Amino acid sequence: MVNIRIDGLDIEVEVGITVLEAAQKLNIDIPTLCYLEELNEVGACRVCVVEIEGEANLQPACMYEVREGLEVRTNTPQVIRARKEVIELHLSDHPFDCLTCAANQNCELQSLAKQHGIRELKYEGDRNQFYIDDLSPALVREPSKCIRCRRCISVCSDIQEVHIYDVIERGFDTVAAPAYNESLMDTPCITCGQCIMVCPTGALHEQDNKAEVWEALADESKHVVIQTAPAIRVTIGEMFGMEIGSLVTGKLVAALKRVGFDKVFDDCFGADVVVLEEGQELMERLESGRDLPQFTSCCPGWVKFCETFYPSMLDNLSSCKSPQQVFGALVKTYYAEQEGIDPKNIFSVSTMPCVAKKYEAQRPEMNDSGQRDVDAVLTTRELGEMIKEIGLDIKNLPDEEYDQPMGQATGAGVIFGSTGGVMEASLRTVYEKLTGERLEKLELKEIRSDGFKEAEIDLKDGRTIKAAVARGTGKARQLMDKVVSGEADYDFVEVMACPAGGCVGGGGQPIYSGRDKWNRMYEDRLQRSEGLFKADREKECRVAHENPDVKKLYAEFLEEPHSEKSQQLLHTSYQDRQMYTHEEQYAEERKS
After folding, report:
1. 587 has a pLDDT exceeding 60
2. Catalytic: 51?
């Protein structure tokens, strides 16, 4: 411990912490712009400068470590003036489209300008003009709004280990972008959207599909249906001031009916179907011993990661589509047949905690129903904005029920929204199918992942299922390297691309502002996940194969898991997206 003084207040703090962290202990707020605790501590923006006794220049509080006898002043006229100068310089090279910006009222640069009373621009001159990169079906980049904070670089490289972004060019032309400032479509981007979650401005945001959905709702010739992902029910309430993890399933359904959707369905029904299809596939692989381990395939960010970086393992991916796409295919076939509606007149919408789902819905393979299985995907953020647009507040709505015939789901389908939930849901069914007995405890907490978990499920006949769960593609890369090298031996592996709890921390979820947003994502995922597990515990039916509506689906339409019809509608194939062989990559690196 060392003794220091900040703004005349004495405090004893741990050796090795920064002035910023020490000031927080005294409830002294030092503004930051680039800093994210435990993720991005690079001192790039210089908004957090302070005076240090004995130092000739102002120092960045986020990088300056404490020492015995250190004396710090955080609010002198010189410090305040310097901070305002830095913010004004950022503004001098920033577009002034705040009213129409995706980050309006949730922009950290905007908030700092207001906090520091900046009402006019001191500096005027040339501004960088970059093309907007909107070629990706999932993400939009507006480089002109980039403030070079490097947060996107940190999360993409250090957490996800995809390495899309870097600082390119020099001086006035500097920007955080893919190589040569190319489009994300020309990179190995997996569209996970974690860069959106940490961006302090509107330089990164999702493709907005609200107008497309509003247009469909206004078209009387269209029968517009929507499916809601598991994680939406524990996150949409946050956009209306409710507590983190509030379970608002019934209120969400009521809101969607008032928005104008003809039918509101539960995507957890699709998850129950995935359990049966994926579970049958796993049992067949266990019997034959071929292509093990089987990897889950419900996360499109993870699927694209595997296609890009580990194409040799594509045969190990379950061929089953994600719940979103399974549901979409069934809406355009089974539901259309049940209701006597021409599939061409059905407009199928999904609302997801994810931006990668936008990419997934537009994959050319996702049209086995005869047209696009899912016509439009809304993130949690977009859906919240639509509900607010017509003047509704979820808190004040009554609870209403999902529509039939695809509105009934089990607890197994609900827990798909949290990391470990997909595997847990599948093992509840697979165990019972293989042993003839119900799992003694349905809640397999040992595989509810915190980064990486592994477990063995005893089948009581001398056999076991060796399982592993990875959260975030950085952890997935470590796991895959062990599998490829033969160091790890598993039967069943679940991977979710998003590191903060899987779907509950997805790239389409509500975005927070401030230096603690990264830690908040990790902390909040516990409450969000608990909301899903609570919903599971409250369900009368908790195993997918006992869902009466799923039984009816198979009896009347699909026949059985892995039937010819289910293979045609509910299963898919994958593409080798590797851009370079290792030899070509080495040659490129040498040339650069």
Report:
1. no
2. no
Q: 2-75: what fold?
A: Ubiquitin-like (UB roll) (3.10.20)
Candidate list 281, 307, 424, 494, residue with the active-site label: 281
For 210-570, CATH gives 3.40.50.1780
Q: Does the annotation count 357 as an active-site position?
A: yes
Contact call for residues 425 and 271 (beta carbons, < 8 A): yes
pLDDT digits (tens, 9 = 90+) for 214-229: 999 999 999 999 999 9
Catalytic residue among 51, 108, 142, 278: 278
Whether 456 is catalytic? no
- Respond yes or no on whether the N-terminal peptide bond of residue 405 is cis (omega within 30° of 0): yes
> Could you confirm whether 298 is annotated as catalytic?
yes
Q: Which one-letter amino acid corresponds to residue 464? A: T
Catalytic residue among 62, 298, 306, 320, which? Answer: 298
Retrieve residue 187's tokens. 């990179």
How confident is residue 590, by pLDDT bands cut at 50, 70 and 90?
low
- Whether 318 is a known active-site residue: answer yes
Active site residue 360: yes
Ranges of each domain in the chain = 2-75, 91-206, 210-570
pLDDT tens profile 499-508: 878 898 999 9
User: How would CATH label the architecture of 91-206?
Assistant: 2-Layer Sandwich (3.30)
Which of 230 and 171 is assigned the larger pLDDT?
230
Distance between CA atoms of 273 and 327, rounded to whole angstroms? 9
Q: Kindly name the residue from 251, 304, 357, 358 that is annotated as catalytic.
A: 357
The encoded tokens of residue 480 equal 């895959």
CA distance linking residue 350 with residue 362, whole number of Å: 13
Sheet strands (E) in 312-417: 346-352, 376-379
Answer yes or no: 268 catalytic. no
Q: Active site includes 277?
A: no
Is the pTM higher than 0.70? The answer reads yes
